[in-house]
Amino acid sequence: MFKFLKRQGTQKNKFDRKVLRKNDISLLTLDERWNSLFSNTEKSPEILKAEEKLKELLKEQSRLIAESKESAQRKKTCMDKIIKLTTEVYENNNEQAKEEMQNCEKEIKKINERMESIEKDLENMPDLLKETNLELLEHTVNNVYLNIRAKQKRVSELETLIEETRNKLKEYIDEKESLSQDNTDVYSYFHDLLGGEELEKLDREYFG
């Protein structure tokens, strides 16, 4: 059905990642239609694991962005402080101001190193999210299609049962009509033979 699926022997289907990378597949955990797939179907352990991994990556991305903004603000604060200390350091030769400036410079160096690391992590995040999203999609398709196959089998079973029931119902209807007709014929015969008055006596005696 899907050209991007590859059958790996008896293993579960694997996606052709080269094909899917060309497609703009939304993050499944944020997709209402994906979530609705499991309104009547349980998620497999593989889906739960991949879903949690994707959620954690999104949390980490948000955390890194927040840290990057906070680091940039700290760096600006240090740079502003250095500017304010310039006069005391270079014109008044204030030793305390020199020490404060040196501390600010060390802090800026640490912040730059951390910001560089954060930038690399954020650059890698889209690929990590995409790969994890595709992994979740693989498990989703396998899980959902196994359920579809099971439901198709049950539909086939129900169709057989419905057909059997339909045939049985027809037999019951035919039997009912035959018995009713027999009773009508017999009743009609005795009515002609004995008369209505005698039939009423027999009815009271046998049917109350």
Protein model, in words:
The chain has a domain at 165-207. Residues 1-11 have low confidence and may be disordered. The protein starts with a strand and ends with a helix. The protein is an all-alpha fold. It has helices at residues 17-21, 32-36, 45-90, 95-194, 196-207, and strands at 5-6, 14-15. The chain has a two-stranded antiparallel ribbon with strand order 1-2. The radius of gyration is 41 Å and the shape is rod-shaped. It is built from five helices and two strands.
Annotate the secondary structure layout.
Blueprint: E1 5-6, E2 14-15, H1 17-21, H2 32-36, H3 45-90, H4 95-194, H5 196-207
Antiparallel strand pairs: 1-2
Helix pairs in contact: 3-4, 4-5
Short key terms for the protein model shown above:
disordered N terminus; two-stranded antiparallel ribbon; single chain; mainly alpha; 208 residues; 81% helix
In short:
The longest helix has about 100 residues, at about 95-195.
Strand content: under 5%
Rounded Rg: 41 Å
| Order of strands in the sheet with most strands | 1-2
Structural class: mainly alpha
Count of beta strands: 2
| Overall form | rod-shaped
Helical content band: over 70%
